[in-house]
């Protein structure tokens, strides 16, 4: 299994909306690097849900339930989506400030590639973020 992080402005589409909908297609990605990450996602992979702009924190865990397919919001075949469903809200959100303060997370994509909307997360980074959130 691989781990990922997706970013969304909570005013546009937040964690609570994902929970309410129970599943969503992760549409609208127009960055080639982010698109390439979507293509690598496999069914069952776990995904941190990150609120950008407002909150600036990891708030929950989602799961990939359908692997990449054509983004229905465009006719351009270059763009794909995956389907995500919520797994659980983190016990305590983990802020970008907390992540940047943790030396072991200095190479995390969230720190190095701040603007990338779909990112990889290494297993050891995943475990450390969960620990910071108070999860077991």
Number of helices: 6
What string, H for helix and E for strand, traces the elements in order?
Answer: EHHEHEEEHHEH
Overall geometry comes to globular
What's the N-to-C terminus distance? 18 Å
Tell me the strand percentage band: 35-45%
User: What is the topology, as strand order, of the major beta sheet?
Assistant: 2-5-4-3-1-6
Helix content: 25-40%
Q: Summarize model confidence as the mean pLDDT.
A: 97
Describe the sheet with the most strands. 6 strands, mixed
Structural class estimated from helices and strands:
alpha+beta
Weakly predicted, low-confidence segments? none
Beta-strand segment tally: 6
Rg is 14 Å
Describe this structure in words.
The chain has helices at residues 10-13, 15-21, 32-40, 96-101, 109-112, 123-133, and strands at residues 3-8, 24-25, 46-51, 57-70, 80-95, 118-121. It has a six-stranded mixed sheet. Helices cover 30% and strands 35% of the residues. It has 136 residues and is of the alpha+beta class. The model has no long low-confidence stretch (mean pLDDT 97).
